[in-house]
């Protein structure tokens, strides 16, 4: 078995609901971050997706490996190989300084950097990495704790993508259009994503038509086909009764709770 092999079972809609409830943001916001960072926290071989950050390793080790290991200790970011090849870079760094190597690696579905282990709720980087290896559920929980500890929850609640990108991705976020990609992913998931296994559209206040009529009938309301404040209030009440994140948006989880 390869080192760092864990449980690659993907997150469920209920997992995303739980995280959104903890932060108080739309479910689509959590899904957007996951999509832009990883599109799934594990490689096909069962190891977490990682990126090794050579500039962080240099900072963590005071540059003492620059001469002998320039590929993994350098002042400039980069040198990425992607996929499983990132573990080759990590292995070289592990042989130099294990703790610094783990702190210099971004892990899992939300690409949390090891040196942020404390903000993610872990006493040391070894415990953090063990959680990242254990499964996407632990990766998601760590992300929620990190966002709240870093006070980025307000940005997710407001869907302030430049603000969130600055805090989560760093001052150079605009160089790789991080905020733009987050906004696009949020729009995609706000409108139901690919709607695989969900024949019903995502509905929100302002929508009209036959789908809204069907929703209102399921809610026991007069079906005028206009998703207004009264319909939103009924959706929020239904979501609360079902133990879902109350955002007033009718997605897959809410439809499942409303329909027999």
Care to describe what's here?
With 260 residues, the chain is mostly helical. It has two domains: 13-190, no CATH class; 210-258, PGBD-like superfamily/PGBD (Muramoyl-pentapeptide Carboxypeptidase, domain 1), CATH 1.10.101.10. The chain contains 13 helices and three strands, in the order ααβαααββαααααααα. It has helices at residues 13-23, 27-37, 54-61, 86-96, 98-103, 125-134, 136-149, 153-158, 161-169, 178-190, 210-219, 229-241, 252-258; strands spanning 50-52, 105-107, 112-113. It has a three-stranded antiparallel β-sheet.
A few lines on this structure:
The protein has 260 residues and is mainly α. The protein is built from 13 helices and 3 strands. Helices cover 50% and strands 3% of the residues.
Strand and helix order: HHEHHHEEHHHHHHHH
Structural class determined from secondary elements: mainly alpha
DSSP summary: helix tally: 13
How much helical structure, as a percent, in the residues? 40-55%
Binned strand content: under 5%
Question: Overall mean pLDDT score?
Answer: 91
Span from first to last CA? 45 Å
Low-confidence stretches: none
Shape: elongated
Radius of gyration: 21 Å
Q: How would you write the strand order of the largest sheet?
A: 1-2-3
Main pleated sheet: 3 strands, antiparallel
How many domains in all?
Answer: 2
Count all strands and give the number: 3
For this entry, give a set of tags.
260 residues; mainly alpha; Muramoyl-pentapeptide Carboxypeptidase, domain 1; 2 domains; 50% helix
């Amino acid at each position: 078995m390869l080192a760092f092999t864990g449980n690659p079972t993907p997150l469920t809609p209920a997992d995303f609901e739980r995280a959104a409830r903890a932060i108080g943001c739309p479910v689509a916001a959590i899904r957007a971050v996951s999509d832009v960072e990883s599109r799934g926290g594990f490689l096909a071989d069962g190891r977490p997706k990682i990126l090794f950050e050579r500039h962080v390793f240099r900072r963590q080790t005071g540059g003492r490996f620059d001469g002998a290991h320039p590929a993994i200790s350098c002042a400039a970011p980069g040198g990425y190989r992607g996929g499983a090849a990132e573990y080759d870079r990590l292995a070289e760094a592990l042989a130099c300084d294990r703790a610094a190597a783990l702190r210099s690696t971004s892990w899992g579905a939300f690409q949390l950097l090891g040196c942020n282990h404390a903000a993610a709720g872990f006493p040391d980087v070894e415990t953090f990495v063990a959680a990242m290896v254990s499964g996407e559920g632990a990766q998601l929980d760590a992300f929620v704790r990190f966002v709240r500890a870093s006070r980025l929850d307000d940005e997710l609640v407001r869907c302030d993508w430049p603000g969130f990108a600055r805090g989560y991705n760093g001052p150079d976020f605009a160089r790789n259009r991080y905020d733009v990609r987050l906004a696009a992913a949020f729009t995609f998931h706000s409108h139901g994503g690919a709607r695989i296994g969900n024949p019903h559209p995502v509905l929100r206040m302002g929508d009209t038509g036959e789908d809204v009529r069907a929703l209102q009938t399921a809610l026991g309301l007069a079906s005028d086909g206009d998703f207004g404040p009264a319909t939103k209030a009924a959706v929020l009440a239904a979501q609360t009764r079902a133990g879902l994140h109350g955002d007033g948006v009718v997605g897959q989880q809410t439809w499942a709770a409303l329909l027999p």
